[in-house]
Amino acid sequence: MKVSEAARDAQPIATTADKKSAGARPCISADFLFRNLSAAVAMFVAISLLGILVALWSEGWDALHHFGWKFLVTTSWNPVSEHFGALVFIVGTLISSAIALIIAVPVSFGIALFISEMAPRWLRNSVSAAIELLAAIPSIIYGMWGLLVFAPWFGNFEPWINDHLGAIPGIGLLFQGPPMGIGMLSAGIVLGIMIIP
């Protein structure tokens, strides 16, 4: 098979070595870039969490040093006699968070399932936008709404709930006290609404 004159006179194909020697920039792999960027972001998150732990430890060291480890397991809070205990606040945080998760997880899964599988196309975008708008509301607004709007409204139903569910062990603790709507159950409901998005 004869090579034609035109093929012989054509420019030779440049090899990788020719390109490098000509000063062309080497191509960066997209996988390499993604891997390194992901590693950098993961390191940033880990360093941020470590920084939070260091800040908590350094700021809380004075309280732990002065009151000892019993500060974490006692319930008294008396500024006059300087007896302080954080157990009430720790348990309250855990209870309200548990109530919020019990409410928010099924509701969130239901909303996600409805948006992705069942909602018609014309409704899907508006419901999705409304849920995303809930995430944009600051937590202080949720707290003020819960205190000034939800708690008084919930106080109307609390006597009935207390009469019918108050005898159940553990459940009655969620709304004991005067029926003002301010308690662990209402705090958990407001927190659950806040974390739905």
TrEMBL record:
<keyword id="KW-0812">Transmembrane</keyword>
<dbReference type="InterPro" id="IPR035906">
    <property type="entry name" value="MetI-like_sf"/>
</dbReference>
<keyword id="KW-1133">Transmembrane helix</keyword>
<keyword id="KW-0472">Membrane</keyword>
<protein>
    <submittedName>
        <fullName>Phosphate ABC transporter, inner membrane subunit PstC</fullName>
    </submittedName>
</protein>
<dbReference type="InterPro" id="IPR051124">
    <property type="entry name" value="Phosphate_Transport_Permease"/>
</dbReference>
<keyword id="KW-1003">Cell membrane</keyword>
<feature type="transmembrane region" description="Helical">
    <location>
        <begin position="86"/>
        <end position="115"/>
    </location>
</feature>
<keyword id="KW-0592">Phosphate transport</keyword>
<comment type="similarity">
    <text>Belongs to the binding-protein-dependent transport system permease family. CysTW subfamily.</text>
</comment>
<dbReference type="GO" id="GO:0006817">
    <property type="term" value="P:phosphate ion transport"/>
</dbReference>
<dbReference type="GO" id="GO:0005886">
    <property type="term" value="C:plasma membrane"/>
</dbReference>
<feature type="transmembrane region" description="Helical">
    <location>
        <begin position="127"/>
        <end position="153"/>
    </location>
</feature>
<feature type="domain" description="ABC transmembrane type-1">
    <location>
        <begin position="90"/>
        <end position="197"/>
    </location>
</feature>
<dbReference type="GO" id="GO:0055085">
    <property type="term" value="P:transmembrane transport"/>
</dbReference>
<dbReference type="InterPro" id="IPR000515">
    <property type="entry name" value="MetI-like"/>
</dbReference>
<feature type="transmembrane region" description="Helical">
    <location>
        <begin position="173"/>
        <end position="196"/>
    </location>
</feature>
<keyword id="KW-0813">Transport</keyword>
<feature type="transmembrane region" description="Helical">
    <location>
        <begin position="37"/>
        <end position="57"/>
    </location>
</feature>
